[in-house]
Automatic annotation (TrEMBL):
Protein name per Swiss-Prot or TrEMBL: Probable nicotinate-nucleotide adenylyltransferase
Catalytic activity, as annotated: nicotinate beta-D-ribonucleotide + ATP + H(+) = deamido-NAD(+) + diphosphate
Family the entry assigns: Belongs to the NadD family.
InterPro entries with a match to the protein in the record: Cyt_trans-like, NadD/NMNAT, Rossmann-like_a/b/a_fold
Protein encoded by which gene: nadD
């Protein structure tokens, strides 16, 4: 499948929210909407990965199906699902971020991830390089609040953390810089949905 990049213009603030989304659920929407609002973004691009390099691909639904479900779960037209990593041929986040920055000069990107990913971030390829590519917003996730901020990556990132009250300026800051965003939390997961939980709990 070849896909065009979603539209952008120089100066736009765009959040890149990567994930397996296998399948997407209401907590993914909550994360994307919180980032959009609190970081003052113009768009959030949901990068539906061809396959997380650290996860088994057994049981991973086809990319087109995951993108279609993301499209049904998201409600704000500024939140745009894309499978662009498959077209770019990038599996590792560091490569995706470099490729997107090269293709979108002048766009102010922010990487968005849940607290569980900050906890495991030091296992990602060139994670310090990722932090040097663009600012990062971490969204609190139940069960990971303390392990995330105590993780190796968070220790290294500590000098670059900004106050949550300054989140709206994150996209303008020179990386490394990051913020931990708190707010209403959901313990929903794709694992639970695959096991029969509703992706849209009442
Ligand atoms: N309930 C949640 N709260 C905060 N962040 C979340 C939540 N669920 C997922 N995320 C974040 O969304 C991104 C994509 O997550 P992913 O698609 O792996 O969903 P998941 O529910 O964690 O999946 P799985 O249960 O299959 O591991 C990751 O950055 C993850 O940290
Ligand atoms: O680049 C890496 O080494 C790397 C390792 C683990 C996860 N990622 C990315 O992290 C994002 C979240 O993945 P997931 O499976 O937790 O939804 C997704 O964009 C993955 O490609 C990236």
């Amino acid at each position: 499948m070849t896909e065009r990049l979603p539209a952008s213009v120089p100066g736009m603030r765009i959040g890149l929210y990567g994930g397996s989304f296998n399948p997407a659920h209401a907590a993914h929407r909550m994360v994307a909407e919180r980032a959009l609002k609190r970081l003052g973004l113009d768009r959030v691009w949901l990068l539906v990965t061809p396959g997380n390099p650290l996860k088994e691909t057994n049981g991973l639904r086809p990319l087109a199906e995951r993108i279609a479900i993301v499209g049904r779960v998201m409600r704000d037209p500024r939140i745009v699902p894309t499978g662009i990593e498959a077209t770019l041929g990038t599996h590792f986040t560091i490569d995706s971020l470099k490729a997107l920055k090269a293709r979108c000069p002048g766009v102010r990107f922010v990487w968005i991830m849940g607290g569980d990913n900050l906890r495991d971030f030091s296992r990602w390829r060139d994670w310090r390089g990722i932090a040097r590519q663009m600012p990062i917003a971490v969204i609190d996730r139940p069960g990971t609040t303390h392990s995330a901020v105590r993780s190796n990556a968070a220790q290294w990132l500590r000098p670059y953390r900004i106050e949550e009250s300054d989140a709206a300026m994150l996209a303008d800051l020179k990386p490394p810089s990051w913020v931990f965003l708190h707010g209403p939390r959901s313990d929903l997961s794709s694992t639970a949905v695959r096991q029969g939980a509703s992706p849209e709990p009442a």
